[in-house]
């Protein structure tokens, strides 16, 4: 049931609030302030509890809308956060991230705590402590393929590598050991859980991760760029939903007062929505006039109860109390009149009756539509010809098609019923997460091509439109099909290898596996969907697969000699890593020594390092050239001004003409330097990925 909920307070600022740039901070250590990033590289701070000294020596809170201060950063702000970084002080500092710098600022003292250059950029900020910090609070900075942690002195005490540009971060005690882990979302569709610099788990999603928040215990919520919102318990997904709009902000707050925080989402169309973290059901919904840019939780009015604070792009701010708190504010007259409904109750009952009446009319109209559609059909066709038989069933099997370089879902009906169309829904099945396949002629056996974009195990939800051959009506049959992780690799026989002239890969990965061959074969059957049978009295086996994406081979060899050894031959390093990680997870192997030999990858890595060195040399040379050009500009300015003061207009005109040419040269050099810098960052990103 969706609750009706009225805001507890509303504010409206004259400045817009940018997406993701808002936080609540106790800048003086006692009173909460709203800090928001706005246009022009500025930050405004609203302090409704600013202490004013009265005549009797007491303090009072003004709470006026004009209690706004501005901080001029003069650079585009990329991320904003706050926290008590200094354990010796109660007040909280602001953390302001720009394109290549991080500023920790003490607003109360009007002083910088530290200022750090961050070459990898700042795209996300988080505040907290984890195992490696020994309980010391850190500000975590997510940038281009890297995560850094700074203490109160500005010292870098934490550093690790991410797979791509970091887009969201939060802290959560995933393994329930009393110490929080760092959860990181990145642009490569991955959610990684870090314990110190070690990656505990990786979760592959369907799109770029745009939001993360801790709900309770070892539960956390996430949001994707394609409008998906969901919840994980540890690494197990509890639920997810998808919308055609975009999630701008996500947080956790107990809006219904049941003791369990709900997942609150703010959307690009101004929708504010609360869903149960355990079931995903909508419990509260509101709509604001402009896109929601930030969701915060704080006792902002210092009333003794936390509120949900919703910030909008147009500068509007709304607060929402939990339902139990709002109900406690009902007028005393309504409470005293036991058994007599108040005006609000009567209005709510009338609204409920109106909603039910409207629903009744819609259902009656829908029923009438079905009846009208059936009447002409019964007259046009013989009895029984338009109806789908009650025992109609649909089956699904998975096959590989080497010619089309894809997997195929073979759908069949058990009688004469035909399939008119199929909807396939899956996270990584295609770019949008779902597609519709319609044959030119309805058939009882249909082959649906599927090409997963990543090696991830997924469950496909198949909805098929099935009906009789001559019927204008159809039924929706639903079926789930489990697609194994390595479904895009088809086994090859020796004859097929000779016919296709497949060359063996030159790269390999070798590691010990002290496990029985039948158990390894069982894992291979499940993840490659093959039917391998162990051969009696056999200590070795070799399997040949072909990737349907790039038509490159994969050879798996296992031998029980010398305690057991497995060799994976493939030129795809990422594939070998996924293979080993999934195999070790299944066999409960926590530590593994391996020998990797990827000559082509090493050659590419050396080439990238050489590019980085060349780009860096070019950057240094350009910096020197621009410094010389700047000195030349200064000299020309001085000579031009001297000529003006001496009245030598001819010389002044010539100096300004040379100055104009020098300025154009500086602009051109700046463009070259920016292009070189972008290429350098791209090369450094490749270095981190390959490392």
In short:
This protein is of the alpha+beta class.
Model description:
There is one protein chain. The protein has 691 residues and is an alpha+beta fold. Among the domains are: 330-375; 394-483, Immunoglobulin-like; 489-597, TATA-Binding Protein (2-Layer Sandwich), CATH 3.30.310; 601-690. 25% of the residues lie in helices and 38% in strands. The protein is built from eight helices and 42 strands. The chain has a seven-stranded antiparallel sheet. Strands 37-39-40-41-38-42 form a six-stranded antiparallel sheet, with no helix packed on it. The model is unreliable at 52-64, 327-344 and 376-384 (pLDDT under 50).
Q: Give the percentage of residues in beta strands.
A: 35-45%
Give start-end ranges of low-pLDDT stretches. 52-64, 327-344, 376-384
**The CATH topology of the domain at 489-597:** TATA-Binding Protein
- CATH class category name of the domain at 489-597: Alpha Beta
The residue-averaged pLDDT reads: 84
Any idea what the CATH architecture of the domain at 489-597 is?
2-Layer Sandwich
Radius of gyration: 32 Å
Q: Strand order, biggest sheet?
A: 12-13-14-15-16-17-18
Q: What distance lies between the first and last C-alpha atoms, to the nearest angstrom?
A: 51 Å
Cα shape: globular
The total count of strands amounts to 42
Overall SS class? alpha+beta
Outline the biggest β-sheet. Answer: 7 strands, antiparallel
Number of helices in the DSSP assignment: 8
Proportion of helical residues: 10-25%
């Amino acid at each position: 049931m969706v609750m009706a909920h009225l805001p507890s307070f509303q504010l409206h600022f004259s400045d817009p609030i940018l997406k993701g740039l808002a936080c609540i901070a106790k800048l003086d250590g006692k009173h909460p302030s709203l800090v928001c990033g706005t246009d022009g590289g500025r930050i405004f701070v609203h302090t409704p509890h600013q202490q004013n000294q009265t005549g009797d020596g007491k303090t009072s809170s003004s709470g006026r809308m004009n209690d706004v201060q501005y901080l001029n950063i003069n650079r585009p702000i990329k991320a904003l956060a706050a926290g008590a970084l200094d354990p010796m002080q109660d007040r909280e500092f602001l953390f302001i991230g720009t394109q290549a710098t991080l500023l920790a600022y003490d607003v109360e003292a009007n002083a910088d705590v530290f200022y750090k250059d961050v070459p990898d950029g700042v795209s996300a900020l988080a505040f907290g402590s984890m195992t490696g910090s020994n309980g010391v609070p850190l500000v975590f900075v997510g940038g281009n393929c890297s995560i850094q942690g700074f203490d109160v002195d500005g010292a870098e005490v934490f550093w690790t590598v991410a797979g791509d540009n970091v887009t969201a971060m939060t802290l959560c005690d995933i393994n329930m050991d009393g110490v929080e882990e760092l959860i990181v979302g990145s642009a490569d569709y991955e959610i990684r859980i870090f314990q110190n610099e070690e990656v505990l788990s990786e979760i592959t999603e369907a799109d770029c991760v745009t939001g993360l928040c801790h709900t309770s215990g070892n539960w956390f919520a996430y949001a994707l760029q394609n409008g998906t919102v969901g919840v994980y318990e540890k690494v197990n997904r509890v639920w997810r939903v998808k919308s055609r709009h975009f999630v701008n902000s996500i947080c956790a707050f107990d809006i219904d007062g049941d003791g369990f925080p709900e997942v609150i989402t703010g959307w690009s169309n101004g929708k504010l929505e609360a869903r149960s973290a355990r079931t995903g059901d909508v419990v509260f919904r509101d709509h604001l006039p402009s896109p929601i840019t930030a969701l915060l939780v704080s006792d902002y009015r210092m009333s003794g109860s936390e509120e949900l604070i919703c910030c909008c792009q147009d500068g509007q701010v709304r607060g929402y109390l939990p339902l139990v708190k709002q109900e406690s504010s009902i007028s005393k007259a309504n409470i005293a009149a036991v058994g007599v409904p108040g005006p609000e109750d009567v209005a709510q009952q009338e609204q409920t009756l109106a909603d039910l009446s409207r629903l009744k009319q819609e259902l009656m109209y829908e029923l009438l539509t079905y009846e009208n559609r059936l009447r002409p059909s019964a007259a046009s066709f013989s009895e029984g010809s338009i109806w789908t038989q009650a025992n109609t069933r649909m089956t699904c099997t998975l096959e590989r098609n080497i010619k089309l370089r894809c997997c195929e879902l073979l759908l069949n009906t058990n009688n004469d019923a035909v399939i008119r169309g199929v909807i396939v829904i899956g996270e990584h099945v295609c770019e949008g997460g779902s597609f519709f396949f319609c044959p030119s002629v309805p058939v009882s056996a249909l082959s649906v091509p599927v090409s997963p974009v990543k090696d991830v195990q997924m469950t496909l939800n198949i909805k098929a439109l099935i009906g009789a051959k001559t019927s204008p009506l159809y039924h929706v049959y639903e079926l789930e099909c489990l697609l194994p992780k390595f479904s895009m690799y088809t086994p090859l026989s020796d004859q097929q290898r000779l016919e296709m002239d497949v060359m063996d890969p030159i790269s390999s990965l070798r590691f010990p596996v002290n496990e029985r061959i039948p158990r390894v074969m069982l894992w291979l059957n499940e993840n490659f969907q093959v039917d391998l049978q162990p051969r009696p009295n056999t200590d070795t086996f070799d399997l040949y697969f072909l990737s349907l994406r790039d038509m490159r081979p994969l050879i798996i060899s296992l031998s029980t000699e010398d305690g057991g050894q497995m060799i994976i031959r493939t030129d795809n390093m990422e594939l070998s890593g996924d293979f080993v990680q999934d195999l070790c997870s299944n066999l409960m192997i926590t530590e593994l020594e391996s020998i990797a030999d990827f000559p082509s990858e090493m050659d590419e890595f050396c080439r990238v390092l050489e590019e980085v060195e060349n780009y860096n040399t070019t950057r240094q040379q350009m910096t020197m050239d621009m410094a010389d050009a700047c000195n030349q500009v200064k000299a020309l300015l001085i000579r031009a001004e001297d000529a003006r003061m001496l009245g030598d207009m001819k010389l002044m005109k010539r100096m300004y003409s040379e100055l104009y040419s020098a300025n154009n040269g500086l602009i051109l050099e700046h463009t070259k330097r920016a292009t070189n810098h972008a290429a350098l960052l791209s090369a450094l990103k490749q270095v981190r990925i390959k490392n």
